[in-house]
Amino acid sequence: MADGKSSCAKGFCDSSTHVDVKDYYSKVLKSTSDLKSNVCMTPTQPIPAFIRDALKKVHPEVTAKYYGCGLVVPECLEGCRILDLGSGSGRDCYMLSQLVGEKGHVTGIDMTEDQLKVAQTYVDYHMKEFGFKKPNVDFVQGYIESLTDAGLEKNSYDIIISNCVVNLSPDKKRVLSEAYSVLKDGGELYFSDVYSSARLTEEIKNHKVLWGECIGGALWWKDLLQLAEEVGFSPPRLVTAKIITIDNKELEALLGGFRFVSATYRLFKVPKGNTKSCQVIYNGDIRGVENSFPFDCQLTFKANEVVKVDGEMVSILTGTRFASSFTCQSPGGSCEPSGGKPESSVVDPFELADREDQQGPASTTGGCCSTKSGCC
């Protein structure tokens, strides 16, 4: 809001932070050259050919005015209902609309009017380009902290994605809570964001440029684990992580010894308390990962190979969209008690990023940033 005042929409009022972010993304940033840091300029990881092809069909203006960090594309999307938090100019929505197909649907929500105008302008263009008879994409103006107030129904989405946007919110627990509310049972929140090595100081959090550059609002990665548990999600599973460089001496001086990482996590809305482990077999039918499915940084399923997983993973694989792609079995014909506390799936993203920097880039599309996509 140009006047610096807060506005309200169906019970939710934006804060001064929201006002500053809107101004930053509608007035300060006109292109990626206006960025003040190198937060979203780290080398991108390889992108599968079918996703590259989908991105090529997105209108050039939509791509040029997109400030997302990285590329967030989960697997097994055909026919799914997807919500994109902070969809901006709509690049990811139009890419995903091709992957979900005509029977699926993609909704983008953003609070910035200028960005939404760009996205909405090209709905008909993209549907014609994709050969769809009717739109499978729509865009909603609203806040990621108040999805239901924006008219999004509870228990209505299979997948929620977010691309370097949660850090821009002053109330991250509310974002997670709203996401949990609109996800169907078995739904997934698959998102890339910026995390800090420790809780940031008030001076850093109150710096407008650092916040707009996706640094000042970065969550300490351990706090994500706690917030997810409080909201009701399964423990966050780390997919990828990449160390972020700032490349701005003035901003680096303000940040002191804090480190930052771009990381992709997957959180599921599944029942808790399953303590039975199982042997599972991946049948290799998911597009793009037919031979090998890297579920997260710890667990990769190779087609037709037997893998033993703990109760938490059993709940995920049997209670989500992945259920038809896996066969659960055990020697006794049913899942068996694990015989103790499941092995922890918690991974320090900084340790993973440091290790992967030494080993070279992975092949997954999540959790990295691209010079072509710009920042958050």
Main beta sheet: strand number and arrangement? 8 strands, mixed
Number of strands: 16
Distance between the termini: 19 Å
Secondary structure: helix percent: 25-40%
**What fraction of residues sit in β-strands?**
15-25%
The number of distinct helices, counting runs of at least 4 residues, comes to 13
Described by the principal axes of the CA atoms, the overall outline is globular
**Class from helix and strand fractions:** alpha/beta
User: Roughly how many Å is the radius of gyration?
Assistant: 20 Å
Task: Name the poorly predicted regions.
Answer: 1-6, 26-37, 337-343, 362-376
Mean pLDDT: 84
The helix/strand order is EEHHHEHEHHEEHEHHEHEHEEEEEHEEH
Report on the structure:
- By secondary structure, this protein is an alpha/beta fold.
- The protein is about 30% helix and about 20% strand.
- It contains 13 helices and 16 strands.
- The strands form four sheets. Strands 3, 4, 5, 6, 7, 8, 9 and 10 form an eight-stranded mixed beta sheet that branches. Strands 11, 14, 15 and 16 form a four-stranded antiparallel beta sheet that branches.
- Helix 4 (about 90-100) links the parallel strand 3 (about 80-85) and strand 4 (about 105-110).
- Helix 7 packs across helix 10.
- The radius of gyration is 20 Å and the shape is globular.
- The two termini are about 20 Å apart.
